[in-house]
Task: structure prediction
Amino acid sequence: MTEQLLDIPGYQVHGRLGQGGMAEVYLATQTSLQRKVAIKVLLSSEDQAFSQRFLKEGHIVASLHHPSIITIYDIDQLADGRHYLAMEFIPGGDLAQHKGQIFDLPRALRIVRQVASGLSVVHDKGLVHRDIKPANILFRDDGTAVITDFGVAKEVELDSDLTQFGIAVGSPSYSSPEQAQCQALDARSDIYSLGVILLEMLTGSNPYRAANYTQTVMNHLQMDVPQLPAHLQGSQWLLERMLSKDPDERFADCKVLMASLDELTQDDPDSTRIAPALSVTKQNKATPGKVKPMRGALWGWLLVGALLLAGVAYGGYQLYQQKQISDYLARAELRLQSGSLMTPVQDNADYLFRQVLTLDPDNSAALDGLARVLQARIEQYLQLAEQRLAEQQLLLPEDDSATYYFRQVLAWEPDNLLALAGINRVAQRYIEQSEAAYKRREFALALVLVQQGLEVEPANEQLLQRLDGHEQRVRQAQTSQRKPAAAQPAAPLSPVRRLWNNIFE
Result:
């Protein structure tokens, strides 16, 4: 795609952020307000049906107003007939960038509640999103979760236009059982997808995802709801309801779900409570207000004995808890030394250190251990990034490339200098490759390489200059190719050659 095709009045386009099957997204500045925006542009204007659906997406989202729903600024058409949406640019990345990371319970529940709050507005409009997945949940700078990509959102009463033809729309790894079977959908399908996301945040994996589409669908239809780790069992009932195979057994809507989330977060067994004290003496019915001396002494001894037993029991429990903590810490250190940072499930360094914190939230050894696990993961990902860089896996595969690993490190540690430098080195590779393509006169390839470099580092000045100057370089090369070669002066003839010419001419 050339710069001419992206000449959008009122916007200065900087570079491409990503591309899907039918559209691509660019980073731009809205010149009138000098604010960064994301512009979603159709790849083609030929498919009228898709263009209409694209416009409908824009109008749907523009009608929704909520902090957890992306804001649409503009809907218009390019000179070549392709439509575009200009929407708020959300710089905090998406939930998919945290793949494999285990979230603590309060953070996971906070994200679920924010998404559910946004979905409640969507559902109140008689719509169902149909594609709730980590890549469609973005984060603002303040950490607020934002729902995006309403490209397959549909009115509930009009949903039959896809289901009657047996077309399943959505992402298989997060699709509800009824969605996988191409049945009519309602708000409860989005709640199921959100339940899968909650499971993935709490455990670091999505057990429904299989090696192929068929098995993934079968997992949603047949697999029992996975069990959370022991320290999260208090939230198992929430997961059971969100992931029920039968929609009627799920939360009826997101408002009910949010009320249950509020109940769960308020149910803190360690919170201070005020209640009337229990009486340990009983008055004699025959003589109100008096207690027989012997019976009073007996009650006194029983009370002392109960207190002693309670003290012994408490001391025993404390010893048992300390033994558990010591065991968890010892095992965690072994797993950390062996490199078992996140696997196997429930027997890795991260899990074991977190188990300690469930027993002793302020345990300094466990907190230090988790910090060391994170540093080990950062070092591991930096090594993987360097390997992929050496193997020229710069941007693809999406979850196993140099860019992916560098970005994962930045998600954990935004100021990591090695990762920041690594992103820049990947962009430099694309600069070098594009220059080589220009020299070979492979202009289309050069432009693709420049655009891929901007996917890695959208604000890279060298790549932006190449993108801006691409058309000019192509014209200059074509002009120089058509220009006739200058006539070379003839070499002087030798005396013998001149004599030969005089004889035979």
Summary: Residues 303-378 form one domain.
